[in-house]
Specification:
- Helices cover about 15% and strands about 45% of the residues.
- The chain is an alpha+beta fold.
- It has a domain of about 80 residues: Cupredoxins -  blue copper proteins (Immunoglobulin-like).
- The structure holds copper (II) ion.
- Copper (II) ion (CU) binds next to loops.
Length: about 120
């Protein structure tokens, strides 16, 4: 008797898992609880605003980095290896899901400025 019940329970659990894993393929249908972390940085006269510091996000959280520079440059998120070409005065955008934990430098390659450090935990 106990065996039969356990098997039924396992079947129910197994079926219950399927809809969750099927939803993983669509990255733009993020769960409603996972708000996009918006990070906005401005570069003017070689200065970064807000001043570079650590910005924490939750692992799995979608991140959108918007960088506006007064000179042409490339913004780069290390580890995730995502980059955006910056045209003077036009915001460049980098979007990704913070799915790897750790500390990642975000910088520009021409002016070699650190924009911030992304902490994913
Ligand atoms: Cu880089």
């Amino acid at each position: 008797m106990a065996h039969v019940r356990l098997r039924k329970l396992l079947v129910v659990l197994f079926l219950g898992v399927i809809p969750l894993s099927a939803g993983c393929g669509t990255s733009d249908a993020a769960p409603a609880t996972t708000a996009v972390k918006e990070i906005t940085v401005t570069i003017a006269d070689g200065k970064v605003t807000p001043p570079p510091g650590r910005i924490e996000v939750a692992q799995g959280q979608p991140v959108r980095v918007t960088v506006t520079s007064d000179v042409a440059d490339v913004a780069h998120v290390h580890g995730y290896d995502k980059a955006a070409t910056l045209t003077p005065g036009t915001p460049g955008e980098i979007r990704f899901i913070a799915d790897q934990g750790g500390l990642f430098e975000v910088e520009t390659h021409e002016a070699d400025l650190q924009l911030f450090q992304l902490v994913v935990r």
